[in-house]
Amino acid sequence: RPALPDGWLNSRELDENHKAMIAAAELDVSGG
């Protein structure tokens, strides 16, 4: 499971930092 706060999908104002955090979380979940 990605370590993301509940309702993050509801936020349409994700900045590049948040996108980077999400991408990093996805990479961590997929194992690289």
Automatic annotation (TrEMBL):
Which superkingdom is the protein from? Bacteria
Write down what this protein is called.
TIM-barrel protein, nifR3 family
